[in-house]
Amino acid sequence: MTAVTVRVPAKVNVQLAVGGRRPDGFHDLANVFLAVGLHDLVTAEPADELLITAAGRDVASVPLDATNLAARAAIALAKLHGVEPRVRLHIDKDIPVAGGMAGGSADAAGALLACDTLWGLGTPHDELLSLCAELGSDVPFSFVGGAALGVGRGELLTPLAVGGTFHWVFAAAPGGLSTPAVYRECDRLRREEGAGDTVAEVPAPAADPALLAALREGAAVALGAALANDLQPAALSLRPELRDTLAAGTAAGALAALVSGSGPTCAFLAPDAAAATRIAAELGPAARVAASPAPGATVLP
Ligand SMILES: C[C@](O)(CO)[C@H](O)COP(=O)(O)OP(=O)(O)OC[C@H]1O[C@@H](n2ccc(N)nc2=O)[C@H](O)[C@@H]1O
Ligand SMILES: Nc1ncnc2c1ncn2[C@@H]1O[C@H](COP(=O)(O)OP(=O)(O)OP(=O)(O)O)[C@@H](O)[C@H]1O
């Protein structure tokens, strides 16, 4: 085999309920993930040593050393099988970097599948998912795609049924936001409000039955009414100007607007595909349309 290309989707969190900070520093979540049709491509080719190259959107912000999540994925898979990670990984980026859409996680999931296929390892699905969880809380979902409820730190997934296509507009914001910094700001705001920030102090997070029903029924208006992100106040506290972006999307006809995950990308749910195109045009050239759900990591023919 000479080269394997895997396509991996971005995600939006249609509900992100954040519980208290655990002793290990992570937060318990009820995280309703939806994969959306914005993709990175990860291509694995034989090489003498591990090499990362990247092209496309935000490419200057993508690390090309062993800290790249795709490199970490290749190293972890090779170690599991006692082989050397002799591979060139080329990442074609279309998912915003540090945008709250799990771009690095998508590349890790893509690299795992691409290397597993290139090296002919046939690693069982559950072992690949365990490797994903070691690489990051969002990586298992990037691998499976579709829609899922993630509990624990977001890595323990239950697939969810989706009864239709949802149409989104995504407005990337320059600069990115650091995920740990956004969780820290969430804790700080909670302490400031006197609510406390630990597992003992914050109510356990739970998925909203109305939101799950809206997904199951493919009901865009009901989904729009139920969208919720507990990290949004923290993202807005760090980036107050995102309020204007959210308001602009709603004024342009979105059913609802929210920050995607840890931000700063803003997500707008549109009533249909034509409305999504109109809203994107009003928001400007940085806005992109995408439909959901999208499949997880997929080897391209
Ligand atoms: C915001 C989300 O994107 C929503 O899906 C995720 O919760 C973040 O997932 P991720 O980027 O894969 O995060 P990880 O690489 O696992 O963790 C990065 C950092 O985010 C914080 N983190 C992440 C997940 C979680 N449940 N609680 C946390 O507090 C921790 O500070 C952690 O050190
Ligand atoms: N393959 C990769 N693509 C992009 N960034 C990467 C990659 N590997 C490592 N990184 C690093 O990870 C940081 C976070 O990038 P990423 O695009 O994964 O953020 P994100 O989409 O906000 O993550 P999430 O939504 O999972 O919290 C970047 O600033 C970059 O330094």
UniProtKB/TrEMBL annotation:
- Its pathway? Isoprenoid biosynthesis; isopentenyl diphosphate biosynthesis via DXP pathway; isopentenyl diphosphate from 1-deoxy-D-xylulose 5-phosphate: step 3/6
Q: Which domain of life is it from?
A: Bacteria
Task: Please state the Enzyme Commission number of this protein.
Answer: 2.7.1.148
What is the stated purpose of this protein?
A: Catalyzes the phosphorylation of the position 2 hydroxy group of 4-diphosphocytidyl-2C-methyl-D-erythritol.
User: Which Pfam families does this UniProt record tie to the protein?
Assistant: GHMP_kinases_C (PF08544), GHMP_kinases_N (PF00288)
| Native source organism of the sequence | Streptomyces polygonati
Record-given protein name:
4-diphosphocytidyl-2-C-methyl-D-erythritol kinase
Residues the entry annotates as binding ATP: P96, V97, A98, G99, G100, M101, A102, G103, G104, S105, A106
> GHMP kinase C-terminal domain: from which residue to which, for each copy?
212-283
Q: Looking at the keywords, is Iron-sulfur present?
A: no
Residue ranges constituting the GHMP kinase N-terminal domain according to the UniProt record: 68-146
UniProt family annotation: Belongs to the GHMP kinase family. IspE subfamily.
Q: Which GO terms describe its molecular function?
A: 4-(cytidine 5'-diphospho)-2-C-methyl-D-erythritol kinase activity
Q: Where is the active site?
A: K11, D138
Q: Which UniProt keywords apply?
A: ATP-binding, Isoprene biosynthesis, Kinase, Nucleotide-binding, Transferase
Q: In this entry, which stretches build a coiled coil? A: none
